[in-house]
Structures are given as C-alpha cells and as structure tokens.
Amino acid sequence: MNKYWSETIKGITPYVPGEQPRAGRLVKLNTNENPYPPSPEVLEAMKAAVTDKLRLYPDPNCSRLREAASRLYGIPAEQIFAGNGSDEILAFCFKAFFDPGDTILFPDITYNFYEVYADLFGVSYRTVPLTENFEVSASEFSSDNDGIILANPNAPTGKTLSLEDLETLIQSNRQAVVIIDEAYIDFGGESSIGLIPKYDNLLVIRTFSKSRSLAGLRIGLAMGNRSLIEALIRVRDCINCFTVDWIAQAGAIASLEDTGTFSHYIGRITATRGRMTEYLRDADFHVIDSSTNFLMMSHPFLRAKALYEALREKNIFVRYFPKPRIDNYLRVTIGTDEEMDIFYDAILDIVKNTH
Amino acid sequence: MNKYWSETIKGITPYVPGEQPRAGRLVKLNTNENPYPPSPEVLEAMKAAVTDKLRLYPDPNCSRLREAASRLYGIPAEQIFAGNGSDEILAFCFKAFFDPGDTILFPDITYNFYEVYADLFGVSYRTVPLTENFEVSASEFSSDNDGIILANPNAPTGKTLSLEDLETLIQSNRQAVVIIDEAYIDFGGESSIGLIPKYDNLLVIRTFSKSRSLAGLRIGLAMGNRSLIEALIRVRDCINCFTVDWIAQAGAIASLEDTGTFSHYIGRITATRGRMTEYLRDADFHVIDSSTNFLMMSHPFLRAKALYEALREKNIFVRYFPKPRIDNYLRVTIGTDEEMDIFYDAILDIVKNTH
C-alpha cells in the first residue's frame, strides 16, 4: 500500500540505527553512546535556556555556538556550520557538493549511512576495500572521483589513518570535496582540523553524541573553507532554516567550554578500553586496536552472530552487522567499568558454556 | 568561489526567513511568533528533561509525543509523525511523495518555502492564481497533477478555505497526495484532520511555532494515512534518524496536554486581532479578514515598501514581500496589545507625516 510513495522511497533501504530498548535493567553497548553524563555545567546552561524566549525562533546561524567552537578549534567562526546532529550535516553535504551522476568514494567497511545518503540523493558511489587488516589505503583514493567521505577513526573498525596519509589523500584529490567524519576523534587519532587553512576541499565533521555525552541533544559541526560552509547554509535554507533549537545551542556552547569534565571522562573511557582490550585478548578474543569508544572483536571459533544473540538474552546489547567481511565481528561500546565487567563475565560465560 | 558546489546549489535561491534582529528595544512583528510565552508547565517539563539521560539517543519515533497528539487530535499514534519543525517535515514530503519530473500545484501567493523545496528536489510546479480577493479557487486544483500543497489558512493572505471546498479538492485529486499546511489553523478556520480517516491521500501538517509559542524549540507534526507516515519515516531514516531531541519531545508533550493556557492565549491574540483590524480600517487601511495571527494590510496611497522602511526606522519590524500581487501589502504579526498600540501609533504617525 504505497501508491503515493516516490520512486526513490519505494526502492530505498533506510539506515537502521542500533536498537534503543526501553526495558529497565540492561547493559546498552550497542550505539556508542557515552556511559558518563554530560557535564553539570552543560545541564545548568540548558536549564537556564528554558525561558520565555522559546517563543522566538532560534538564531538560525548559531552564532554564539560557532564562536565557542572557533575558540576551541582555532578556526574562524565563518568557517563553522552547526546542525541537528552530524547525520543531518552529512545529508546536507550530499546536496551541497554532489549531483546525480557524480561518483563518490568511501571505504567498503565504514559508517553504513554514507550509502543511504547516496541512494537517497541519486549520487553514485564506489567503495574502496580496506586492506586485510582493515586499514584505509589512502593511495587507493586518488583515482577519478567527485568526492570522498572517510570516517577517521573509521567505524566500525575503530582504526585511524595518519595525518600524513590523510594529507596526501586530500592533496591528490583537489578536484573534489574530501569529507572527514571525525565522530570518534576525541577518543584517539589525529584531527585533520589543522589542515583546513591549507586545503579548500577539506570539510571536517564533528558530533556531540559520542565524546560529549549529548546524543540526546542532537548537535553536530562542520568545519572547512568558507565556500563549503556557504554551500551547507544554502542547503539548510532550502530545507529548514532553524535546525538547532535554543536549548541545544546553549548546551553545546557549555560543552565546548567545559574542557575539564570532557577530558576527565575521555580519560576514563580510554582507560577502560585499554583494560578491556587486554582482558579480552587474554581470553583469546581477537580485538582490533581501537582509537574510538568501541571495540571491534571476534572469537577464534564462536560466531559473532551467536555471541550477539546469547548476550542479548542476558540483556546485554552490542552491535552485530550482517555484512561481508565484518559478519564475524561484534562492535562493543565502551561502557562504565561496571558495565564492561558485566559484559566480560557474560561473554566468557557464553564461551565456556558453548564448549 | 564555488567550484565545489553542486549544480543544484549553484542555481538555487534559498528561502529567506524574516529577520531575527538582536537589538534591544524593538517591536518584532515580522515572523509570526507568538507574543505570549510557552505555558509554565511546558517550561517545567523541559527543565525536568534536562538530565543525564541526554547521553542517550532520543526516542527516534517520539512515541510519547505521538501518543499525546493522538489523544488531542483523535488520530491513532501510528498515523502521526513528529519532526524538527514543520519546515523539515514539508521538505521530507518532497522526497517522500514526489519524483523529479513530477508536477505539483500550489497557489501563486502562499508560503514561499514550497517553491524552494521544489527547486531543491527537482520537482516541477505550477502555481494556481488566487482570485482577485486572494481566495483559493478549489476547483482550479482538479487538473492533472502529482501533488498539491495548500496552506490553510493561507499565508501571507490570512484567508481560509472552507472544509467543504477542501474536501472537494481532496476528493477530486485521489491520484496524488494533498498536503494541507495548517500552521495557523489554531487561530481560525476548520481543520481537515477530521477528513483523515476518509482520504488516504490527505496529509495534515502542524507546527508548534505559532499557536504554541515554541518557535525556539522546533517541533512539527504530520498526520495522515499510515502509508504516508511510513514514507516520511523512510525519508527521515535516510537523513537523520533522531530529528527531535529529548527536551523538545518533553516540551511538546506538555504543550499538547496544557489546553487551558493554550486557549487563553489564543483568545487574547484573536481579540487583539479583532480590535486592531477595526482600528486600522477606521484609519483607512485595507485589512484582509484574518484567520491567523497576522494581518495582511495595505494603505490607499502610501506604498507598502515605504511604510515597511519607515516602521523599521522606528525599530518596528514587519514583513514586506517584494512579490507580484502582494508588493503593496504589509504582513503584520499580532503582538501583545501594547506592541500593537505602538505599531498602530507609529503607522498613523507615518501616514500623517507623509501627507
């Protein structure tokens, strides 16, 4: 019963986000949320923004938020764009920089949403295989293309590309926009923000959903040459001029300003990640070195799908992707130490009982 | 310097929203915001939603919000879609229901954003002229088309179409989706929500930015046949699965539940509208009967553009559209009684001093 659907929508496979189960007691390690709360200053700033002013449209350009980002990242405010989550900004990129008939490149194993955007907006894409060790081969991206999207660190592998390799890639693709999705960069790897003044074809995307504990607030940023930012503004003003509400703007500003709490929780997550990587390897799991807030792991003989289902029965949610090359891996978000201990005990228990 | 822009973005003219001036003392009657604050219960609900839970992604389907809307409007929750403002939902409609090459219809004088969406998504459109008195002629919409968008009440004219005429229009266009944009319906006119069970081609759009005093929060709803709602969900899940943040969901629920404050302020606005219409007509202005929270008005010999500029010099912001047929009208949002008195005195002063 879809006689009124557009042809695009009839044919498309939308993105499927990780489950947001509503049950009470569960360990949720499936959508790379931060196990620690937003900083108290962020919550205070949001409460303070709940005023009668909400009757007015928000600042469409998020001026104060962009100024706060400018101070933190050392990029002029005019070179920063704020949106309703980085997913929205990525979608806007497809209308801003690519036309139907264009061919863009991204790795064969990466954030699944890139191919959905391409399908929605009729942009062709070619996937570039990661190496056997799930590394991005920068040199493979220097062929003919109309754009490149790279998640760095990559998801769901958790691996990073060096800044040197990234620069070579950007340099050898001056004909096209290179979008670096730095959703996980605060957990490891080198940011390409420092390359923005040198390359007018570089756009760096950030999200507040992972390292800043604000998935529920919906904030993302794009940084790059002013002309690229202008294109994003044009797309936004053809869809919804006011994408970021007053309260989200206030919370995002406070988040950028509270560097102390931010560093503290990043430190805890990376410490837990190190400990858990070690434990799991000691228990014979293959765990990829992670620069993110998740681990990509597999077991020498138990199938990932079986592990995923067995964990789910114990109310432990992790992510499993039934996709070529990674269908024997689990992607496990780094939770609190307590959550990770529950996960660890559970998975060891499953392994033991399957022998 | 737009070598990286897509062809679509190079050629397009984005929507230009009314100014959001940041100056201190001014009378802002230019973007149809509500002069009264959101209900205290709405503010309380939002503050209560500012919690550690913000580290988690919001409910993508806004289930509780849709249930609250279901209770108020008597439409099943599965037939309701929530988005980040009605503009976003309208944009989604273009991907959901129309393909490039399709031709849709809307009036020649209506919300300017409709043609921007069409241009962005490559959908053709034909405008149907309003009558000399700025009425929608429903019968003119029964020609061959792939979709219809009608604002009811219409903006910026402020006029409504009767439910009977609307039903005839929907009935004679069963081949296509008919989108009724009811942004201003709470201020007057008959809602077409009651027709939803009868017509699977009807989609009704609502916003919280006008009657609900929540322009700064960004909430819109779409209501219609389940298949139409499913198409909108598919588009959303190809762009950004989590469009409405936790705090906005909480505020929107409280707004739908507090019918008392809502009716009280609607009553005040319509009373001010009546009084001001009378005063302005007594002062020789031509004022269209309004079913909205704005007045469309012209003066017998002073040009609207000159009035607009003279008001602006007095820090009174109204809207002027340099477009055929309406370029001698001002669109003036109904503010508080105090604001309207300032506006009234100022415009009379301008008229007097121009004699």
UniProtKB/TrEMBL annotation, chains A, B:
Residues bearing PTM N6-(pyridoxal phosphate)lysine: 210
Cofactor: pyridoxal 5'-phosphate
Enzyme class at the top of the EC tree: transferase
One of the GO BP terms on file: L-histidine biosynthetic process
UniProt pathway annotation: Amino-acid biosynthesis; L-histidine biosynthesis; L-histidine from 5-phospho-alpha-D-ribose 1-diphosphate: step 7/9
Catalytic activity: L-histidinol phosphate + 2-oxoglutarate = 3-(imidazol-4-yl)-2-oxopropyl phosphate + L-glutamate
Keyword field contains Amino-acid biosynthesis: yes
InterPro entries: Aminotrans_II_pyridoxalP_BS, Aminotransferase_I/II_large, HisP_aminotrans, PyrdxlP-dep_Trfase, PyrdxlP-dep_Trfase_major, PyrdxlP-dep_Trfase_small
Keyword rRNA-binding: no
Keywords, in A-Z order: Amino-acid biosynthesis, Aminotransferase, Histidine biosynthesis, Pyridoxal phosphate, Transferase
Enzyme Commission numbers on file: 2.6.1.9
Start and end residues of each Aminotransferase class I/classII large domain: 26-347
One MF term in the entry's GO annotations: pyridoxal phosphate binding
Family as reported in the entry's similarity comment: Belongs to the class-II pyridoxal-phosphate-dependent aminotransferase family. Histidinol-phosphate aminotransferase subfamily.
Subunit structure: Homodimer.
Name of the protein this chain belongs to: Histidinol-phosphate aminotransferase
Taxonomic source organism: Paenibacillus sabinae T27
